[in-house]
TrEMBL record:
It is a multi-pass membrane protein. It is found in: Membrane. Belongs to the mitochondrial carrier (TC 2.A.29) family. It holds the Pfam family Mito_carr. GO terms for molecular function: glycine transmembrane transporter activity. It comes from the Eukaryota. Keywords: Membrane, Transmembrane, Transport. This is Uncharacterized protein. One of its GO terms (biological process) is glycine import into mitochondrion. Solcar repeats lie at residues 15-98. The lineage of its organism: Eukaryota, Metazoa, Ecdysozoa, Arthropoda, Crustacea. GO terms for cellular component: membrane; mitochondrion.
Length: 104
């Protein structure tokens, strides 16, 4: 019987806005941190006047800014991505719940 109570609690929790918001916030942070360094590298290659290869761009970033250079501009990206992720996933989940309620 205790496991049934846990299932009901977790089902109830999954229907709460704060749950969706928190999960989307975490997903946005993780996605931003993982994808930012390759994006910095891509931007460096595209914006260089000399045609740099990926390896040359990595060396240039490390020479100019060190390892933290791969994370320059991360804060604005985190703010934008996490906000968009939170809003879109929370709305998506709320709409799904409303659709399920109308089907019953």
């Amino acid at each position: 019987m205790e496991s049934y109570g846990f299932v009901m609690l977790s089902h109830t929790l999954r229907n709460e806005v704060k749950y969706h918001f928190g999960c989307a916030l975490f997903a946005g942070i993780v996605a931003s941190i993982l994808t930012h360094p390759p994006d910095v590298l891509k931007t460096k290659v595209q914006c260089s006047e000399a045609k740099l290869t990926g390896v040359e761009a990595v060396r240039l970033i490390v020479k100019e800014s060190g390892f933290p250079g791969f994370f320059r501009g991360l804060v604005p990206r985190l703010l934008r991505r996490t906000l968009l992720s939170c809003v879109s996933w929370t709305i998506y989940e709320r709409v799904n719940i409303l659709i399920e309620m109308t089907e019953d």
